[in-house]
């Protein structure tokens, strides 16, 4: 979305953002990144990337003289209900881009899975695969939940409606022969679930995110938690049935005083629309992978360190945007 300086002023942009702009009219490109709940991993990672790729008119160059982002671009990290909501918003044209789990992106693009019987979102295109998203089944210490089967009769949150976590939590339960009817199911955002677990009114909750998750980290320190493994023949069958799942592990040092576990994961994708111009997405992809962005990712969040160019095409499940594809070909990532 492009607007000139006069329109931007009329639209109420802050004086601080525009104070350094020269008097001549300049174009600004606004680019929103749909993320997830503020307590999760999507939102802070989205903020880092938005900061890295932004370079509005009047901005100073980086300290080393290199470009810090895309000239004229103002990117923002927008909190949302997660993967499904982001895929829908991109398809509807109300969001320029967003983070979407690889399974949800595949279903939306092909019109299968949770999108069965609904119009395909076949305009979705990938910018990059960012990092694995671990399925984190968090139980209150002392709840007696040591395995997925122990969830029977317990108070469990499967995450909020519209989230990719809810979709996958149901699949995980099914792999173990369980349904929501076998437990006291609730449908809460991660922070809400964490708050209820803290006050003892919830026994466990699912979260699909990169570790460490802020809300879970706080629980580990203040309340005490157990991570419940998602492993064994049931998990192996899940990975075999759905190609977008992968075996994964959360290490011992992810959360304080909490032993790590084996689990499963999907990939976090940065997705846009085929309607976005090739030149813009090429420039954004280049900005994502430049040296200055690397510094921000490495210092800004634990999961930022695993966002790597060499892994940028893993488990996409949907086609690349032509602008991103052009960049990866130039870098030799696509042979």
From TrEMBL:
Keyword annotations of the record: Signal
Keyword Nuclease: no
Protein name, UniProt field: TAXI family TRAP transporter solute-binding subunit
UniProt xrefs under PANTHER family: SLL1037 PROTEIN (PTHR42941)
Superkingdom in the source lineage: Bacteria
Family matches, as PROSITE patterns: TAT
CDD domains: PBP2_TtGluBP (cd13567)
UniProt-listed Pfam families: NMT1_3 (PF16868)
Leader sequence segment: 1-25
């Amino acid at each position: 979305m492009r607007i000139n300086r006069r329109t931007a002023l009329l639209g109420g942009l802050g004086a601080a953002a525009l104070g350094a702009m020269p008097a001549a009219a300049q174009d600004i490109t606004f680019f929103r990144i749909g993320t997830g709940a503020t307590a999760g991993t999507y939102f802070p990672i989205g903020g880092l990337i938005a900061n890295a790729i932004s370079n509005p008119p009047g901005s100073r160059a980086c300290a080393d003289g290199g470009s810090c982002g895309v000239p004229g671009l103002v990117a923002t990290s927008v909190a949302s209900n997660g993967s499904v909501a982001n895929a829908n918003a991109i398809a509807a044209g109300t969001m320029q881009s967003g983070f979407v789990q690889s399974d949800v992106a595949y279903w939306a693009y092909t019109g299968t899975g949770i999108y069965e019987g609904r119009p395909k979102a076949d305009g979705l295109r990938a910018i990059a695969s960012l990092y694995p998203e671990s399925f984190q089944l968090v139980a209150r210490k002392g709840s007696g939940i040591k395995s997925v089967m122990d969830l029977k009769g317990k108070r469990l949150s499967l995450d909020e409606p519209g989230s990719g976590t809810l979709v996958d939590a149901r699949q995980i339960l099914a792999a173990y022969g369980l349904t929501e009817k076998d437990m006291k199911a609730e449908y809460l955002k991660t922070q809400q679930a964490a708050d209820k677990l803290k006050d003892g009114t919830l026994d466990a909750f699912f979260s699909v995110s990169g570790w460490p998750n802020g809300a879970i980290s706080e629980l580990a320190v203040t309340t005490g938690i157990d991570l419940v493994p998602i492993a064994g023949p049931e998990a192996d069958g899940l990975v075999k049935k759905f190609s977008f799942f992968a075996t994964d592990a959360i290490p011992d040092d992810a959360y304080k005083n909490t032993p790590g576990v084996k689990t499963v994961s999907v990939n976090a994708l940065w997705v846009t629309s085929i309607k976005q111009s090739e030149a813009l997405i090429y420039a954004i992809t280049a900005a994502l992978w430049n040296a200055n962005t690397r510094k921000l990712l490495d210092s800004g969040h634990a999961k930022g360190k695993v966002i790597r160019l060499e892994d940028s095409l893993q488990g996409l499940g949907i086609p690349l945007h032509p602008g991103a594809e052009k960049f990866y070909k130039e870098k030799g990532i696509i042979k």
